[in-house]
Design goal:
Layout: E1 2-7, H1 10-18, E2 23-31, H2 40-44, E3 51-58, H3 65-74, E4 88-92, H4 95-110, E5 118-121, E6 126-127, H5 135-139
Parallel strand pairs: 4-5
Antiparallel strand pairs: 1-3, 1-4, 2-3, 2-6
Helix pairs in contact: 3-4
Length: about 140
């Protein structure tokens, strides 16, 4: 199955999700904007409307979508409004994901948090340049 999340710089988000058992692959890139085939430099201008995202393939027999939502909300501040390419967003790929994402967000709001995470339908995913893929692994760094 597929899942797509935006939660800040995609390097750290990818690294975090790659550590989750059941995530079978990940790519970093862009989604949600109007520019076709944007480059990283294009997205950084703020004119494309795209968000930096991690696009996941996962095995739902090993990790549930709800567990991925929990990881997502635990690895970033979903209460900080950011209109740049770093905004907090869940792009759902089907109705089940939409319902689960909206429900999870609603539960956080009911607990008193001011969650600004958007829940939007997935659109075209544009893979970022190769040097962005597995950035921390390639460069010996870690964000955690």
């Amino acid at each position: 199955m597929k899942a797509t999340f935006g939660a800040g710089c995609f390097w750290g988000i990818e690294e975090s999700f790659d550590k989750v058992k059941g995530v079978t692959s990940s790519l970093v890139g862009f989604m949600g904007g109007v520019t076709k085939n944007p480059s990283y430099n294009d997205v950084c201008t703020g004119a494309t409307g795209h968000t930096e995202v991690v696009f996941l393939d996962f095995n739902p027999k090993v990790v549930s979508y709800e567990e991925l939502l929990k990881v997502f909300f635990n690895i970033h501040d979903s209460t900080q409004l950011n209109k740049s390419q770093y905004k907090s967003v869940i792009f759902y790929h089907n109705e089940s994901q939409r319902v689960k994402a909206v429900g999870y967000k609603s539960d956080l709001v009911k607990s008193g948090l001011r969650v600004v995470t958007e829940v939007l339908p997935a659109s075209v995913f544009y893979k970022a340049e190769e040097y962005h893929q597995k950035y921390y692994k390639k460069n010996g760094g870690s964000c955690l």
